[in-house]
Amino acid sequence: MSKANETRQAHDTEKPSGGGGKGIVRRLLPVAALLIAAVAFFALDLDTYVSFDTVRENHAELKAFVSDNLFLAAALYLAIYAVIVAASVPGALILTITGGFLFGVFLGTALTIVGATLGATGIFLIARSALGDLLRRKTGGAVARMAEGFREDAFNYLLVLRLIPIFPFFVVNLAPAFLGVTLRTFVVATFIGIAPGTFVYTSVGAGLGSVFARGEEFTARGVLTPEIITALVGLALLALLPVAYRRYRARLSRVSRDGAAE
Q1: Closest C-alpha to 51, from 104, 101, 98
Q2: Phi and psi of 180, rounded to 5°?
Q3: What is the torsional sign of CA 146, 152, 158, 164?
Q4: 3-class SS string, the chain
Q5: Are 178 and 127 in contact (CB under 8 A)?
Q6: How far apart are CA 246 and CA 249, in angstroms?
Q7: Each residue's pLDDT tens digit in the chain (262 positions)?
Q8: Whole-prediction pTM value?
Q9: CA–CA separation, 74 vs 179, rounded Å?
Q10: How far from 86 is each of 6, 44, 63, 250, CA to CA, in Å?
Q11: Which of 200, 215, 199, 204 is nearest to 53 (CA)?
Q12: What separation in angstroms does the CA of 231 have from each of 149, 171, 195, 226?
C-alpha cells in the first residue's frame, strides 16, 4: 500500500461516525425536541393542569369519557404518560394516582407501567445515541471502568434503583445510558422494578372517588407508609442478594487461587 493510501485510510478512520457534523445534528435533534417539550410545558402553564385539583374539578367528566371511550382514553393516557416521563417534567406521580381512579387498580397499573417504561426507554435511547459516546470519549478510562463494574450486575442495580426511589426517576433513566447498559436490561429492570410502587399508588387512586365524594382534600404525602417503605426496601435487598452471592463466590475463588499458589 502506498504512503498516500495509508494517509487517506488513517484520515477516514479518524472521521466521526454518522456523517460528521450532520450526524451530530441528527443525534441532537431528539434532545432538542425533549428540551422544547419541557420548556413548552412550563411556558404554557400545563403544570397547573397536572394536579389533584384539576382531577377533582373534572372527575365526573373524566370518568364518563373513559367509560364511553375506553380504548381511546387508554391510548391517550399511555401517550401522555410516556411524553411526561421522557421530557422529565413533573406530573408522573399525579398521573399514576389518576390512572388508578380512571381505570381501576389492575388496568391502571398496567397502563402506567407500560407508559413509564416507554418514556424511560425513549430518554435512555436518546441519551445513549446523542451523548453517551461523547461522554465516554471526553472522560476517558474513568467512565469506562465504572461502566464495566456497573454492567456486571446492571440488572440487579437497576432493579434496586427502581424499587427504592433514592434518586429522581430521570437520573436513573440517564445514568445507564452513559454506563453502557444494554437496552434489554434497561427495559426489563425498569418494567419489573417500577411495578410494586406503581401498584401502591394506583391502588390509592382507585379509592380517590370516595375522597372526592366526601369533599376532602387529597395529597400523596401519606401514601408511602412505614409498612410499604419496609416492604419496598425488603424487595430491594432481595434484588441485591445475587450480587452479594457472586461477590462472595469471587472472593472465595481468589482465596483458593492464592492458597494454591503458595
Answers
A1: 98
A2: 75, 20
A3: negative
A4: CCHHHHHHHHHHHHCCCCCCHHHHHHHHHHHHHHHHHHHHHHHCCHHHCCCHHHHHHCHHHHHHHHHHCHHHHHHHHHHHHHHHHHHCCCCHHHHHHHHHHHHCHHHHHHHHHHHHHHHHHHHHHHHHHHHHHHHHHHHCHHHHHHHHHHHHCHHHHHHHHHHCCCCCHHHHHHHHHHCCCCHHHHHHHHHHHCHHHHHHHHHHHHCHHHHHHCCCCCCCCCCCCHHHHHHHHHHHHHHHHHHHHHHHHHHHHHHHHHHHHC
A5: yes
A6: 5
A7: 444 444 444 444 344 444 556 666 666 677 777 788 788 877 877 777 888 888 888 889 999 999 999 999 999 999 999 999 998 888 888 899 999 999 999 999 999 999 999 999 998 988 887 765 555 555 455 455 556 656 677 888 888 888 887 778 888 888 888 787 889 999 999 999 999 989 988 988 888 877 777 766 666 565 655 655 666 667 677 766 666 656 656 665 665 555 555 5
A8: 0.74
A9: 34
A10: 45, 18, 26, 38
A11: 215
A12: 28, 23, 13, 9
Amino acid at the residue 93: L
- Maximum distance among all Cα pairs of the chain, rounded to whole angstroms: 86
Cell (9 digits) for 220: 400523596
Q: Cα(64)–Cα(41) distance, rounded to whole angstroms?
A: 26
Closest CA to 132 of 38, 11, 33, 30: 30
Question: Given phi > 0 = left and psi -120 to 50 = alpha, else beta, which region is 155?
Answer: alpha
